[in-house]
Amino acid sequence: MPAKQVDNLRSVHEKYNTKIPVAEYNGLKIGVTRLDFCTWQKAKNKSPSETPYTDLGRQIYMKRTGKKPLKARADELLSLNWSKIIKIGHKEKLYNFEYFMNRAYAFNRDKGKCRVCKEVLQGDDIHIHHINPRLPLVEVNRVPNLASMHEKCHQMIHSSKDYSMVGKKTWEKVLGFREKLSLI
């Protein structure tokens, strides 16, 4: 029977008049799909030198997939930033054990991107912003109240300057975060 007349896999069979074997069951005509109806791409061979553990291996991965290399773990990246905070003597009650635990969860939730400008966060340029820093201590460090961002974006939020030249979407995000701070 012509493939486009069978009752199964209509999206695949509707383009073909080619006859295929059919079995009838409970009034339905079930066709056996031919392999030449399917399309596929030949898989490329895997290079043994492609590995996340070497610079060369990460470059080979990036060239093959077009994706950026695997990022360092979020908690390691954020520890660099926390070392800076401790160095300058920033020791508020806001930064407790729950903050240490949840900042990595917030970073992962944000997929390693800045909540303001949407660019990828890297190295020691990661800041975790308290959306509402005046919440009670039991709520202030919860993941929904934390936002990952670049240091420059974080500074824009806490500044009263006009940064409208950064672009409409980014500026609207900054104003949104500022508004949440001012409502407090």
Largest sheet descriptor: 2 strands, antiparallel
User: What is the percentage of strand-forming residues?
Assistant: 5-15%
CATH topology of the largest domain: DNA Binding (I), subunit A
Number of helices: 7
Q: Globular, elongated, flat, extended or rod-shaped: what is the shape?
A: elongated
Instruction: Give the termini distance in whole angstroms.
Output: 71 Å
Given as residue ranges, the uncertain stretches (5+ residues, pLDDT < 50) are none
Strand order of the largest sheet: 1-2
**CATH class (first level) name of the largest domain:** Mainly Alpha
Judging by the overall fold, what is the CATH architecture of the largest domain?
Orthogonal Bundle
Brief rundown of the structure:
This protein has 184 residues and is of the alpha+beta class.
Strand and helix layout:
Elements: H1 10-13, E1 22-25, E2 28-31, H2 55-65, H3 74-87, H4 97-109, E3 126-130, H5 137-140, E4 146-150, H6 151-158, H7 168-182
Antiparallel strand pairs: 1-2, 3-4
Helix pairs in contact: 6-7
Q: Which short descriptors sum up this protein?
A:
184 residues; alpha+beta; DNA Binding (I), subunit A; 2 domains; two-stranded antiparallel sheet; 7 helices; 10% strand; elongated
What does this structure look like?
This protein has 7 helices and 4 strands, in the order αββαααβαβαα. It is α+β, with helices and mostly antiparallel strands and 184 residues long. It has 2 domains: 3-37, no CATH class; 74-182, DNA Binding (I), subunit A (Orthogonal Bundle). A two-stranded antiparallel ribbon has the order 1-2. Strand 1 and strand 2 (28-31) form a beta hairpin.
